[in-house]
């Protein structure tokens, strides 16, 4: 037997042939994975090992607080999102048709904006305590008791109010897909409304609830603005403290590695839960569950139960921030805000375009190459979305600074004059961080869109003499334009809201809307922060409306 019939070429068997598509997939995957690998290397081989010091001092406190915050927010968001989804999909009550979409709006409010609004609303000089003192005649804070606003409890409420729509979206879809026959059987056996929810609806929707709760907990771990404003010490704030205050990169990487372990555990747990709990509709005549009319006190009770998270997660922040924005109209034209807006549009726009183009290239390349390695690497490129921004900041800045210094030295020799840092001294690091962080959105949208295109179109075009580039431009691009446009917008919106990576990687004196709002709010200048916060919310609303349209 001839050797070539056995395909004994190891490079061919592994898909390592250097065609442009395989090489492109390798480059993109390497760029995405370098920050994660860098954090791991710095954590295990630091210049100055402070593991013993961290373990003896701050790390247990950071880890305990993070776990409490993560689990509490995940549980509260799961309860609120699941309860609201069940009421919306199973009952008719006043405002139920409006609330089905209004419950998505808290996604437009970054958690740190909600934190600023809550503190301003409930603090000593805020409207709530001021009104209480006027009503009861209290003179000072010693005359009455009021809960501590800047606390972990308040952080849990704010984060849950901002993130519960993740659970709501997935669980609502799961409840809608459930067959009505299962509930009818349960009802015929004597199960009441609560029994049908606990014994039928909840177990069938458990994978969706687990997936939503996992996303919520990962976003909680990633959060910096909220916990920093509430003075809650978590692993993310620990990264900032050790790096920016103690100037210890190895220590920051070691804390970042703990965050990575937590995130990987959450991702693994979510995938395992979905694999072990699977339900299939065996009926050929699937019928959705019928909605029940709730009247009287029960109907208004359901309405109030769905209104509370909407009011707390959207109406309260928008009202408080909007009030300050209207009171400080002169702040809208400040040069600092305009520069921050320009920087945000520039960096976010460039990052969105680069990310989406790379996602389309990768998916199309994997689709055409027929190689095993690019297909194996494709899922790995989504890992950046699970990594918190602070972790990516640590992992990107170190190798980028090393490369930047080598590049500056080389250009200085070639040009015979000093050259500044081109990569870390500009917004390049921000664009790279955004692209790595949100690449999963672009890749997922491109993969789903191209998966709906028949391979026969590709083969027909190739048989007519079209090149692969022409096939992409003339066939795929027109057919996937809608999905790619949605991905472009979603990536841009996430770039606008991203705070931890921006704070770590921005050049000196370089502000975006997120950092401008955070800096002003940290100085208790909510009037100065409110115009930028309103701009961020408006951008977020565009993404939520797009999401609502896609989930119609």
Count of DSSP strands: 2
Order of helices and strands: HHHHEHHHHHHHHHHEHHHHHHHHHHHH
Instruction: Give the amount of beta strand, in percent.
Output: under 5%
Domain unit count = 2
Shape: globular
Average pLDDT reading: 82
CATH architecture of the largest domain: Orthogonal Bundle
- By CATH reckoning, the class of the largest domain would read Mainly Alpha
Here the CATH topology of the largest domain equals: MetI-like fold
User: What radius of gyration results from the CA coordinates?
Assistant: 26 Å
Largest sheet: 2 strands, parallel
Structural class per helix/strand content? Answer: mainly alpha
Contiguous runs where pLDDT drops below 50 for at least 5 residues: 1-16
C-alpha termini separation: 59 Å
Estimate the helix proportion, in percent: over 70%
For the record, what is the CATH homologous superfamily label of the largest domain? Answer: MetI-like
Task: Describe it.
The chain is an all-alpha fold. It folds into 2 domains: 18-47 and 328-552, Orthogonal Bundle (MetI-like fold), CATH 1.10.3720; 50-127 and 154-327, MetI-like fold (Orthogonal Bundle). The chain is built from 26 helices and 2 strands. A two-stranded parallel ribbon has the order 1-2. Helix 2 (20-44) crosses helix 14 (249-276) and helix 9 runs antiparallel to helix 10. The protein is globular and about 75 Å long. The termini are far apart. Residues 1-16 have low confidence and may be disordered.
């Amino acid at each position: 037997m001839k050797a070539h019939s056995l395909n004994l070429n190891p490079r061919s068997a592994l898909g390592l042939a250097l065609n442009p598509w395989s090489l492109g997939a390798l480059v993109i995957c390497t760029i995405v994975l370098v920050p994660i690998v860098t954090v791991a290397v710095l954590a295990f081989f630091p210049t100055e090992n402070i593991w013993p010091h961290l373990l003896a001092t701050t790390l247990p406190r950071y880890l305990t607080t993070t776990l409490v915050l993560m689990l509490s927010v995940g549980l509260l968001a799961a309860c609120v999102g699941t309860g609201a989804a069940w009421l919306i999909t199973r009952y008719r009550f006043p405002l139920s048709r409006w609330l089905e979409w209004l419950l998505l709006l808290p996604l437009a409010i970054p958690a740190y904006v909600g934190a600023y609004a809550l503190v301003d609303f409930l603090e000593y000089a805020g409207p709530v305590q001021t009104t209480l003192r006027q009503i009861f005649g209290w003179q000072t804070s010693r005359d009455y008791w009021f809960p501590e606003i800047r606390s972990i409890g308040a952080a849990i409420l704010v984060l849950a109010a901002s993130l519960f729509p993740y659970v709501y979206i997935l669980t609502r879809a799961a409840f809608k897909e459930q067959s009505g026959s299962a509930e009818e059987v349960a009802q015929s056996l004597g199960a009441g409304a609560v029994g049908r929810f606990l014994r039928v609806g909840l177990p069938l929707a458990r994978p969706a609830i687990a997936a939503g709760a996992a996303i919520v907990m990962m976003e909680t771990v990633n959060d910096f603005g909220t916990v920093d404003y509430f003075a809650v010490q978590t692993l993310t704030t620990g990264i900032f403290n050790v790096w920016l205050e103690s100037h210890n990169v190895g220590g920051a990487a070691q804390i970042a590695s703990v965050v990575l372990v937590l995130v990987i555990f959450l991702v693994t747990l979510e995938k395992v839960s979905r694999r072990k709990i699977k339900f299939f509709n065996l009926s050929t005549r699937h019928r959705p569950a019928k909605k029940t009319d709730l009247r009287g006190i029960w109907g208004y009770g359901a309405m109030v139960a769905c209104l509370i998270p909407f009011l707390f997660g959207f109406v309260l922040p928008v009202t408080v921030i909007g009030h300050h924005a209207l009171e400080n109209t002169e702040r809208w034209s400040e040069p600092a805000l305009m520069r921050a807006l320009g920087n945000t549009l520039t960096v976010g726009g460039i990052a969105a375009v680069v990310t989406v183009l790379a996602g389309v290239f990768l998916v199309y390349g994997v689709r055409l190459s027929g190689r095993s390695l690019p297909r194996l690497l494709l899922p790995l490129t989504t890992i950046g979305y699970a990594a918190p921004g602070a972790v990516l900041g640590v992992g990107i800045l170190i190798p980028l600074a090393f490369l930047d210094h080598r590049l500056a030295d080389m250009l200085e020799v070639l040009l015979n004059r000093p050259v500044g840092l081109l990569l870390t001294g500009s917004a390049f690091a921000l664009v790279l961080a955004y692209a790595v962080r949100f690449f999963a959105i672009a890749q997922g949208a491109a993969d789903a869109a191209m998966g709906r295109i028949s391979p026969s179109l590709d083969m027909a075009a190739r048989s007519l003499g079209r090149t692969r580039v022409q096939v992409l431009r003339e066939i795929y691009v027109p057919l996937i334009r809608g999905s790619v446009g949605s991905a472009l917008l979603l990536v841009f919106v996430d770039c606008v809201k991203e705070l931890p990576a921006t704070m770590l990687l921005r050049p000196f004196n370089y502000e975006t809307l997120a950092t401008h709002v955070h800096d002003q709010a940290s100085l208790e200048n909510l009037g100065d922060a409110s115009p930028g916060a309103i701009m961020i919310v408006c951008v977020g609303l565009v993404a939520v409306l797009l999401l609502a349209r896609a989930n119609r």
